[in-house]
Amino acid sequence: MKDTLDDRTVDFIPQKPKRGRPSTGRAMTAAEKQAAYRARKAALTVTVTFNREDINTLKRLIGNPDPSLNLDEATIERLMEAVFQAAK
To answer: pTM value?
Structure first.
């Protein structure tokens, strides 16, 4: 019988390796996974609050952007869609 604290003696009886993927010891709990997911999701979005009477003005500003700003068309469309969704 081998001493459990002995890490230098070679094993004389070879043992089969464990099946499956070896563990890394860094497994996350379900709560940690969910917190990481929420943090990633929160990093993508920003919540802004407007008064309802300002929505029409905002729609006009987004619909007629200043050409000197060189805004991306896809960004303008995404903003427009977000404003129209909020107006519902």
So the answer is: 0.43
